[in-house]
Amino acid sequence: MFGLFRNSKREFIFEKLSPSIRIEKILSEFVFPELVDLGFKFNKKDLTFSRTHYEFENSIIFQKSKWNNGSDICAIKPSIAIQSKALADFYRKNKTTNTKLIGLAGGNAEDIPNWNQECFDDGYYDFTQYDNLQIVKNLNHNLSGPVNDYFDQYKTYSDIVTHKIQKKTEYYLAPRLYDLCAINNDALFGKKVIGWYDEFKNRTDKGIPEELDKEMMKRKL
């Protein structure tokens, strides 16, 4: 196989290339083909796989380690995001933001349930430390399995809102969740978001950011 080298019974892909080029080629040639049938596209510049999945945009982002150096370190940190284009369009129409997507869920890949930690150290895959074919195998399993399962939990606005309310965390998202309900003409779910936020406000002893409370007060009018 082109670009494949053996070292102490470990196999290394594109070992002679610089870390940036090496990472892009590994993701493009060994990972992307496994995600095509799931509807993902690959942005080589941003090292991001993305797709439109029901009501949301799904992204798998790879951050290069700032310590990458020649053949000593060639590491990437995967994370995921679920974002709403409809909510961003709503905010742009009302001149409250110019962003193209609004984040609603996601985080570091290792926090995804059932993420396989093999060949994965401190949130990074390092192609200088482990057999590259094994890394690719584990990564492809994680992306097409646990990560895709995570994405599939959130197909609609009601999935997102229900999960956040049941989880009882991330109250800072309350204005966005309410607005998601509003643009879907769901007053009942909107009231649930307000109730969820008010319950948190009444029991917390940490204080509520003034701007957050001001935004929620607007939505109660």
TrEMBL record:
Identification of the protein by name: Uncharacterized protein
